[in-house]
Protein 1
Amino acid sequence: QVQLVESGGGLVQAGGSLRLSCAASGRMWSNLAMAWFRRRPEKEREFVAAISWSGGGTKYVDSVKGRFTISRDDANRTVYLQMNNLKPEDTAVYYCAAGLKATGPVLLTTRGYQYWGQGTQVTVSS
């Protein structure tokens, strides 16, 4: 079993930065692909970024490429999402997700992840 606890959300002006953190418990960390999804107002949950469980490969949705960076600290079982140059359209609840040995196309979909955090609100004002 894996539990995920997110932190770091908040209110920021457009152009600002935030760093989200997600701490994981359990013994499966080394086999977990980690990702961030978000749910914007009146929209479905969507993929934002993922990092593989082996090799550290990353994937991003086009709208955040060059602005967001996902990384993982294996020693502390934590995954981060550094968000720079934030825009009002980034306003959403951001969710951390973990998928056991997830790889390939499923990394970009909710189907690839068995464990989810409770979500953290990010609000970007214009």
Note: The longest strand covers residues 92-100.
Protein 2
Amino acid sequence: QVQLVESGGGLVQAGGSLRLSCAASGRTFSNYAIGWFRQAPGKEREFVAAVPRRGIRTYYADSVKGRFTISRDNAKSTVYQQMNSLKPEDTAVYYCAAQLTSFSETYSTKHSEYDYWGQGTQVTVSS
């Protein structure tokens, strides 16, 4: 089992930046692809970004491409998400999730395909 703990959320003005962290413990971190998802009130959970096991390639939702950057440090069992040029529509609870995979470049945009989830961290962007 993998335990995930997100941190770094908060209140920021539009145009500002935040850096989220997702710290993992338990099983071998490098065996998991990691995704960030978010859920706003009254909306479904949506894919934000993902990084496969090796961390060489990254993938983003169109809504955050060019503004968010996901990265991972397998030695520290941590994934980061740098969020710049934040918009009010980025307001949501952000979750990191881990997907066990045998393939180094596998990732998924579907929340149902992830095995473990953190508790979430609130990001609020004021206009």
Note: The chain has a mean pLDDT of 96.
Protein 3
Amino acid sequence: QVQLVESGGGLVQAGGSLRLSCAASGRTFSRYGMGWFRQAPGKEREFVAAISWNVGRTYYATYYADSVKGRFAISRDNAKNTVYLQMNSLKPEDTAVYYCSADEFGVGSSWPTEYDYWGQGTQVTVSS
């Protein structure tokens, strides 16, 4: 069982930055591929970014939705059981609730159905 807690959301002006954090419980965090998804009012949940699991390896893969490539960056710190989403050059259309998710031995899928665990979400609001 993995519990995920997101933090770092808030209100920011267009062009600004935020860093989201997702803290995971348990001692096997490095076995999990991690994803960030978002859901705006009246819209379906959509993929934002993902990072693969990396037990015993120095390399891990990252993936991004086209809408955030070059602006967002996902990273992980296995020693802290935490995954991050650095969001730069934010736009009003980035406004949504952002969810962290975990997929055991995941390679970084963009499909929400691949993920076994989800956090409660953190609100990001970008004003124009």
Note: Residues 23 and 82 are 5 Å apart (CA to CA).
